[in-house]
Design goal:
With 308 residues, the chain is α/β, with parallel strands linked by helices. The protein has helices at residues 40-47, 67-70, 88-98, 103-116, 132-144, 162-177, 189-195, 213-219, 260-270, 283-291, 293-296; strands at residues 2-11, 14-24, 29-33, 55-60, 63-64, 73-76, 150-154, 181-185, 198-203, 206-212, 222-229, 240-244, 249-255, 273-279. The protein has two domains: 2-216, Rossmann fold (3-Layer(aba) Sandwich), CATH 3.40.50; 221-279, Alpha-Beta Plaits (2-Layer Sandwich). Helix 3 (88-98) packs across helix 4 (103-116). It starts with a strand and ends in a 12-residue tail after the last helix.
């Protein structure tokens, strides 16, 4: 597995990373989440040995990551770093050779990923002629060329249409099914919740929450009652409410220990109920709960963790 321990990095007076540590086991997708400027990209670059740390260690299967180990990693940075006038297949094959593949193997890998990502008919086109979404597919192909043991992906869904998002999600699942470890950063938290088994949330260079997605949601002190009435109804039994569908659909935040049956009976007393649910917050709501400025400015705030 990937093991990150005690990562610390300063840029002058700015403490970019403050004792960051987590694991990414083989066969799992771990989401790495945080606001802009929270330290995600610096951590990913440190894993790839692109940032000199002030303290801390990154190991793979118990051995410190060095240049040889890194050849078995795949990295997709948020910023595109490609040669715009180079033809697509040549570009992939060139990067394959840089990662240690023979010319023959690099060419075969380029052809395989061009086909898998729906770009085979663009093989002789230049990078600069591709749309933003197709350039993002090329970035992913570059990370996958050498069948890496570890994938580190920074905003991989950016710029992709729904069809490409579904394709990428399938590919990520295929990679962990074959035994790769995958660390994924994204602001699209619905997609993170769909593909990741666990998440690590970082803010201001410190880990503020980590654990399995289902466990983090279940541990929240908040639940959401969602009720759809046959007609528009005024109903606000909780701390906060979101009303839609012309006043027919209500989503209300309540405490986790609230008697859901009592609430539904109350709703039915107001008007016929078409449907209802009683659920923990989704991942985006958990995220907002721990990176909200009011919470993090509290001097009593401590790092939180749900055991995996």
């Amino acid at each position: 597995m990937l093991r990150v321990r005690g990562l610390t990095k300063r840029y002058g007076p700015l403490l970019a990373l403050d004792d960051v540590g987590f694991d990414v086991p083989r066969g799992e997708i771990v989401g790495f989440l945080g606001p802009n400027g929270s330290g995600k990209t610096t951590t990913m670059r440190a894993i790839m040995r692109l940032v000199a740390l002030d303290a801390g260690e990154v190991t793979w299967d118990g051995t410190p990551v060095d240049g040889g180990t890194r050849r078995h990693f795949g990295y997709m940075p948020a910023e595109r770093g490609m040669y715009p006038r180079m033809k697509l297949r040549n570009h992939l094959a060139y990067y394959g050779e840089l990662s240690g593949l023979s010319p023959e193997s690099a060419g075969a890998a380029a052809d395989r990923w061009l086909e898998r990502l729906g770009l085979a008919d663009r093989a002789e086109d230049t990078i600069q002629s591709l749309s933003s979404g197709n350039q993002q597919r090329v970035q992913l192909a570059l990370a996958l060329l050498n069948d890496p043991d570890l994938l580190v992906l920074d905003e991989p869904f950016s710029g992709l249409d729904p069809v490409a998002v579904e394709m990428l999600s399938d590919i990520l699942r295929e990679q962990v099914d074959r035994g790769a470890a995958l660390l994924l950063s994204s602001h699209q938290l619905d997609l993170v919740a769909d593909v990741c088994s666990a998440v690590v949330i970082v803010d201001r260079g410190r880990i503020v929450l980590r654990g399995e997605v289902a466990a983090l949601r279940a541990a929240s002190p908040t639940r959401y009652v969602e009720v759809e009435f046959a007609d528009a109804v005024a109903w606000e039994p909780g701390r906060a409410s979101d009303v839609s569908a012309g006043g027919r659909r209500h989503r209300i935040a309540v405490e986790a220990g609230t008697d859901a049956d009592r609430l539904i009976e109350e709703a039915r007393s107001l008007a016929p109920v078409v449907g209802y649910s009683f659920l923990p917050p989704d991942l985006s709501e958990v995220f907002l709960g721990v990176v909200g400025r009011d919470t993090l400015d509290d001097p009593q705030h401590e790092r939180a963790e749900v055991a995996r």
